[in-house]
Structure formats: structure tokens, C-alpha cells
Amino acid sequence: MILRFVLAAIMAIALTGCSGIQSALDPQGPHAKLLANLIWTFTAVCAVVWVLVVAVLFIAILRRRGERTDPLLIDVPAERRAGSVIAVCAALTAATVIGLTVLSYVAQRKLFAKDTAAVTIKVTGHQWWWEIEYEDARPDRTFTTANEMHVPINAPVKVKLASPDVIHSFWVPSIAGKMDLIPGQQNELQFTVSRPGVYRGQCAEFCGLQHAHMAMLVTATSQEEFDTWRDSQRKPAEDPSDADTDKGRQLFLSRSCVMCHTVRGTPAGSRVGPDLTHIASRRYLAAGTLPMSRGNLAAWIYDPQGIKPGANMPHTELDAGELDALAGYLTVLK
User: Fold this and answer.
1) DSSP 228-274
2) Average pLDDT in the 2-22 region?
3) Which end of the chain is more exposed for a tag (fewer CB within 10 A), N or C?
């Protein structure tokens, strides 16, 4: 009874990893489904092979013969049977390996097949955040955001991958496989999301101290919702509507913030750090480290090294009133 309970508990814990917003076993697109099928096929075949090997080993132990009276005496029929069994097992092993190789090759061809992309996005991996640029044939329609990607469902999305510092790896398990971002080289990944939702991704290549805090969210919506979001992201930041917000804007433009960040519609145009034009429209701060809120914005501005040690965000000297005004200004950038 206790054994059954323990086994049930282990199975329940194991199965919790098969679903959710970051699981390769919960596919939400054709590319991810192809990978999930490949995983299950390999797992099933390897499980069968393991069971057969253990069964044969168990039978061999049970049928173990006693010592021979004459060690040099050869049982010719038995030796022939043993040779035949070994030959059959070797052939089955070769067939299994070749079969899995062919299956992997076919899946890979499908994964890397390219359709005409409805959306093209350039993703640049930095230590430790994602720069996301939506490309367009018209330069005035391109725009840049950070750490959170929006895509339409049932539409091929091309992602161009690059890195200016170290090797990163783009991985959103529910919708696509992994692809590395390599300095000096541009890789491409294509995927399609079949179902609306929010899917979490992660840098899957160790890239430094805060590698674990380099997450990404992909929000998949209908084409109409995506178009509305894209149009809003193309707009410059709104002008302050009250004295407190205007004070925060002036602080942003007069302190070190302007040296690293862009807020379109203002003189701030640096691209060292993330584009903050619509920062308040995002769900998280610092690449998935903190939920978006006015309090967390203030905490991040005041002590970024305490929250994400090693990040390039410097400490900014502000008194309580200035910190509150600056955080208030950023919260209206939607």
C-alpha cells in the first residue's frame, strides 16, 4: 500500500512538468508538436529496449548453468544458437539506431523548412536581456521592444538571432526548439503558434552570472489583437499629463537613464539598454525577474545590483521624492 502511494506521488510530480507555459511536452504549434512527438517516440523505443535487455538478463541469471566437468568441451548446437541470438540482436540494434536516425532526419527537415514569414523579428541576446526588433519593409514602421515578444497565431514567424557579447540560446519550449545566438553569426528560427496564450522562454546556454534571470515571454493573440498591439508600440511615448509625471520625465532626461535607454518622442535615444518607450505595457521587469509595478520599478532603479547582481544597470542617486516621480513617469509609458 505504501509502495503504491509512493509510486503515485512520484508519477504525479513527474507529470506536472508535462504542461504549463514552459514545457516541451505541451506543444502549441506544429514545430513544437513535431519535437514532442519525436521525444515520445524516442522515449517509447528506448523504454522497450531497456525492458527487453533487463528481461533477457533476468532470464540468463535464472538459467545459469553449473560448472562444466570439462571446461574445454564445446556444445556445438548451443554455441550455434548463441551465435544466432547475438546476430539477431545486433541486427535489431542496428535497425533501431538507423530507424531513429531516419526519424530524426525527417523531423529536422520539417523543422528547418521555411515558409513565407508573416512577421519578421530580430532578437539580440545581451547579458542579460533580450532586444526585440520588429522589422518591416518600411523603415518608419519598424520598432524595438525588450524581453517580451508578441506574435499572431496561425502565422509563420521568422526570428533572426544575434548576439554582441557571448553565446546565448533562444528557447520557448511550447512553440519551438532551441537555437543559439552566436557573436558574429546570424541564425534563423521559424515557428507558428496555433493557440492564443502566454508562453515562457529562457536562455538555454549558460551566459554568465544572471543566466537564470534571462527569461522571455511570447504572447500569441489573434491577428487583429496583434495588429492593435503593433500599432500602439509604433507610437512615441505620450507627453506628461501632470506635474508629477513631468518631473519624472525631466529626471529621466537629466540623470544617467538617458545615457543608456531610448524613449521615442524624447531626446533619449541610447541603445545600450532596453527601449523603454512602452515599458509599462510589459508584464515583467529585468527579463522576467520582477512583475511590473510602480513599486518594483522604484526598487529596480534604486538597487539593480541587489536584485540582479552583475547587470549593467548602475545605481542612480535619487532621494525618495525623485525616485517616486521617476517610477511614476515610467508607469505611464504604455
Assistant:
1) HHHHHHHSPPPPP-SHHHHHHHHHHHHSGGGGT-B-TTSS-B--SS-
2) 59
3) N
